């Protein structure tokens, strides 16, 4: 019984983390039609930058925001400096983001070395929380709560503001959105910043669970891909549901059938691509 | 002399290597309605796409109230006061009716959401509904309302009667006539010849990407040869 409850909580905490990772990935993919293969690298960079800030004595949450801003700024530079110049050349953009991810990975290795860099959870979240006679790691509950708060904030931004409606109009029909006067490329930059910010922030939030290590990027990116394919490109509810699905599948898969962890993870993705390529919440876009 | 609302001068346009428009020139006078007619593939929608900045005119010049807009981005062309009701409506299906209108709102002028809802009461009834779930006629009204939200000086409409029931076609016709009465300059592409002729001041007929005929609507309507040659079905 304890196994199931603990694994469920782990799944949900991981789902929350994956949401921070994949919400931005999904929005960028949905709006700009480029799978940003550097997104895992941005997540890893955030974890390292957060760890560095904390070594300088910056408190956890401030370090998380600082890492988010730094990674967001880098994302904006990459988008404005490289990707926008290649507008329309989707294949080129994919290759560029792949190249960027290699550069980020090597620079991280060069700067922080090959050993994992641990990130400590905030002190007040370290003690276990007792619920119904079970001891839960407090920090994982906090990650889940934080992800849900971010999800709510993003949902309000996207669904309840004019800016959000403009972003969704751009996802629905980019040329038509431009033709009613929406400056889609400016929205791209804003969304790219937001997505990169969330990736960097997520790297720090995930730090106490995952730590920062070389290869964190390539561990996370496929998960984000699966989330987005299951949930549907460009859909926030899709990213949320997909994240928790992948969290559950991944955790129980590795715990119960360790030999088949990747099969269990990717099989649903393959089935989804065959049965409903637009994903659970995907929109049919032009 | 009033400045013309929209002028195309010797426009050529290409889809890839395919040469679709050949030296197309036309003039939409201020406060009038110019009907752009022709068979499928004659280049009517391409003409609108070129004005909207979807295709680059090369060479050729396009001006709106005397200002050059050729080569500008669609966003910049909207800012110059041009709005498009595109073929197939292209409303934003996942946005609500209300959101479809607010994302297009621009400038101060005659049109705001209340006025669109007054003009199209059906849209007010469905303002929170996803636009993709509307009927074809309602989507057409939404596409017109969305274009008006930008308070345009030039309104381009691409087959607003397409696929609509006759009563709704009549209603759309009344609304277009009302917009013209208000002084809006309208470039109308239509397959429905009766509707177009009843609304138009002037008519331009395209045939295989070239201007085949132009003139006053009443003169064109009397010229059965021109109509048969350029609009008739073989």
Write a brief structural summary.
With 286 residues, chain A is mainly α.
The CATH topology of the domain at 1-73 and 155-160 and 188-227 in chain B corresponds to: Rossmann fold
**Overall residue-averaged pLDDT value of chain A:** 91
Q: Spans of chain B with pLDDT under 50 lasting ≥5 residues?
A: none
- Oligomeric composition of the shown chains: heterodimer
Unreliable residue stretches of chain A: none
What is the gyration radius of chain B calculated from CA atoms?
Answer: 17 Å
Q: For the residues shown, what is the average pLDDT of chain B?
A: 93
Class from secondary-structure proportions of chain B: alpha/beta
Question: What does this protein structure show overall?
Answer:
The complex is a heterodimer of chains A (about 290) and B (about 230). With about 290 residues, chain A is mostly helical. Chain A has a domain at about 25-215. Chain A has helices at about 1-30, 40-55, 60-85, 90-110, 140-160, 160-170, 175-180, 185-210, 215-230, 235-255, 260-275; strands at about 130, 135. In chain A, strands 1-2 form a two-stranded antiparallel sheet. With about 230 residues, chain B is of the alpha/beta class. In chain B, about 35% of the residues lie in helices and about 25% in strands. Chain B has a domain at about 1-75 and about 155-160 and about 190-225: P-loop containing nucleotide triphosphate hydrolases (Rossmann fold, 3-Layer(aba) Sandwich). Classes of the chains: A mainly alpha (about 290), B alpha/beta (about 230). The interface of A and B includes residues 171 and 183 of A.
